[in-house]
Design goal:
CATH topology of the largest domain: D-Maltodextrin-Binding Protein, domain 2
Distance between the termini: 48 Å
CATH class of the largest domain: Alpha Beta
Number of domains: 3
Oligomer: single chain
Number of strands: 11
Structural class: alpha/beta
CATH superfamily of the largest domain: Periplasmic binding protein-like II
Largest sheet: 7 strands, mixed
Helix content: 40-55%
């Protein structure tokens, strides 16, 4: 039995359709369908219910997915161990929140590629709640993101740094009184879907202020740039690795006690690329501590 067939089978289970699996394993949907018929012939079992428009795994098909993952995991580990110096090759797809793209992500990837130059890396920017879904589906190998409120048993969390929520205002804005700044100036918020927005809202509720909502944006970088142009104030995390988007800002403490978001790497416990993910985490820890 070919490893390719098992890899395609697992891709279908994780992505939910032949079409999506085809994109992951880089073949046509027709080739995926033919591979699965070949696999069914080999195991002498019906692995898919093709009576539906989108073929679905049968109970028999679902039952072999965990064993298929184990085989792939063992195979990838064996191939890696046979290479000179344990060199790893292949693809690594990393999700990342936008605030990490300009500094934490490139510095971490640079160190990873110095150790494993044959690895091809793809970076997918998105918000943490979307990255969680993509990790769960198997679309991503790992994600640099905010810590989820709840972590399911099949997921692995590796913390990198704590980022304290702070009030930001333009550098030339006078005054350090957080309450006055929030009360008197327009408020610029992150998208309400973003987890970091919930932390900011908790702080606003604690202060019991009627704020003037002026703008809602999808990324922390966009919020920072609007505030730097003195269009209002905002509450965002103090980045563990500042970049040019924070250069025109002042950061003021807010909240008693303060709130933190924890940045880290999320992956699946059964990921066959755990060595690469662990090395990425080590690189991110090093970058965040500098």
């Amino acid at each position: 039995m070919s490893i390719t067939l098992l890899r395609t089978l697992v891709a279908i289970a994780e992505r939910g359709s032949f079409q999506a699996a085809a994109d992951q394993v880089c073949v046509s949907p027709a080739a995926v369908s033919q591979q699965m018929r070949t696999l069914e012939d080999l195991v002498q079992a019906e692995l898919f219910d093709r009576s539906r428009r989108t073929p679905q795994l049968t109970r028999q098909g679902l039952s072999i997915i965990p064993k298929a993952r184990d085989i792939l995991h063992a195979y990838d580990e064996m191939i890696g161990s046979l290479r000179p110096g344990g060199e790893l090759v292949g693809d690594l797809t990393i999700g990342a929140v936008s605030s990490s793209i300009s500094n934490l992500v490139p510095r971490s990837i640079k160190e990873l590629m110095q150790v494993y130059p044959a690895v091809h890396i793809k970076v997918v920017p998105d918000q943490s709640h979307e990255l969680l879904l993509q990790i769960d589906r198997g679309d991503l190998d790992a994600a640099i993101m905010s810590e989820p409120d709840r972590l399911r048993s099949h997921l692995k969390w590796q913390p990198i740094a704590r980022e304290t929520m702070m009030l930001i205002c333009a550098r030339d804005v006078a005054g350090d009184d957080v309450v006055s700044l929030l009360r008197d100036r327009p408020y610029i918020r992150m998208s309400r879907q973003a987890w970091v927005s919930e932390l900011a809202d908790d702080l606003l509720q604690e202060l019991k202020l009627d704020i003037r909502d002026a703008m809602e944006l999808d990324t922390l970088e966009s919020v920072s740039r609007m505030v730097a142009h003195d269009l209002g104030v905002a509450i965002i995390p103090l980045p563990c690795l500042p970049d040019e988007s924070t250069a025109g800002l002042r950061f003021l403490p807010v909240g008693n006690p303060p709130r933190d978001r924890v940045m880290g790497i999320l992956s699946r416990q059964d990921s066959p690329k755990f060595k690469l993910i662990d090395r990425l985490w080590e690189a991110a820890m090093t970058a965040a501590s500098e």
